[in-house]
Amino acid sequence: MNNKIYFTPGPSELYPTVPQHMQTALQEKIGSISHRSKQFQEIFAHAVAGLRQLLQLPDTYEVLFLASATEVWERAIQNNVRQESFHLVNGSFSDRFFETALELGMKAQKHEVPFGEGFRLQDIAVPETAELVALIQNETSSGACIPVEDINRFREKAGADALLYVDAVSSLPYPAFDFEKVDAVYFSVQKCFGLPAGLGVWLLNKRCIARAEALAESGHVIGSYHSLPSLLSKAKVNQTVETPNVLGIYLLGKVLEDMNSKGVEQIRRETKAKADLLYAYLEQSRTFSPAVKNPAHRSPTTLVANTTVPASEVNKQLAAFDMAIGSGYGKYKESQIRIANFPAHSPQQVEALVAKLRELFG
Ligand SMILES: *Cc1c(COP(=O)(O)O)cnc(C)c1O
């Protein structure tokens, strides 16, 4: 029996109702039903409706299920870019999207700032010719985020035809996006939705769809089974092209139901309060200090701190009390810690983590 509470930034602690929903899924034999059945169509529609409600998603947006956020990167480039994309890069995930565009033969450009820094809008010039602008709302590797007010300014910065893509993988549903100001937002479920990994969600508007259709029309290759027209033709009838992660879609719908009955505003308030508690501790700790200097760019959902005690030692000591946090990313593995503050983490659990860190490390 594993009683650990996972404050790791994804996979992370499961939403508290997941075990009970899994039990029901087994009783209902969800793993055996056909993905062409009416029952599956209802499961699909339920998850989409739950997402629309939680995120206050306009009707002009479509909801698509893919394998992961990593897959969304590849599909976005294939379907929405003929030759040029532009990327904000300040860590490993934003850089990986940029690299994906290069690997797919695009002329990708980036505006890069050092690891651990956010972006200053006045420093960013978006090339007029960029067809897709990749914004990283929450860079999970470094703990830097872009405030929603800043995201909203990119429409005026980019060319009229540019599609604005927002990576909100490790922050949604915390940021209250103005979906009219962007064109696509994506996430995967093992971060803030407190679910087992294996499902990416792509929210996108008609401009993205029109672009894919125009590219295909002109003979540009936009992929095969997960091209946008192919994905959409099935989503329209609450189905997927391939045999999907039915259990994942089922659990997402159930957790969304729970999140909606709590209310997104309450989830956001709690997230903010827990983040304030964690940062207040990190600010005055003898061992840790927030890695992102500018408080406006500190992520409320994935907090990163420099540590004078190696991250592996911090985790070793926490393990004795059934707690796990994330190590630093890549070369910061030992010199930083990462703490997830997701809706699955209760205020009591976060308070207990802070108390234990203070007791053990000052
Ligand atoms: C985790 C993560 C991804 C990749 O998600 P997968 O589900 O592993 O594909 C992309 N972007 C950010 C910011 C992430 O945190």
UniProtKB/TrEMBL annotation:
* This enzyme's EC code(s): 2.6.1.52
Pathway annotation: Amino-acid biosynthesis; L-serine biosynthesis; L-serine from 3-phospho-D-glycerate: step 2/3
Arranged from A to Z, the UniProt key words for this protein are: Amino-acid biosynthesis, Aminotransferase, Cytoplasm, Pyridoxal phosphate, Pyridoxine biosynthesis, Serine biosynthesis, Transferase
**Reaction equations catalysed:** O-phospho-L-serine + 2-oxoglutarate = 3-phosphooxypyruvate + L-glutamate; 4-(phosphooxy)-L-threonine + 2-oxoglutarate = (R)-3-hydroxy-2-oxo-4-phosphooxybutanoate + L-glutamate
Domain Aminotransferase class V: start-end pairs: 7-328
Entry cofactors: pyridoxal 5'-phosphate
List, alphabetically, the Pfam families matched.
Answer: Aminotran_5
Query: Which SUPFAM superfamilies does its entry note?
Result: PLP-dependent transferases
Q: What family does the database annotate?
A: Belongs to the class-V pyridoxal-phosphate-dependent aminotransferase family. SerC subfamily.
Name the record gives this protein: phosphoserine transaminase
Q: Which organism is it from?
A: Pontibacter saemangeumensis
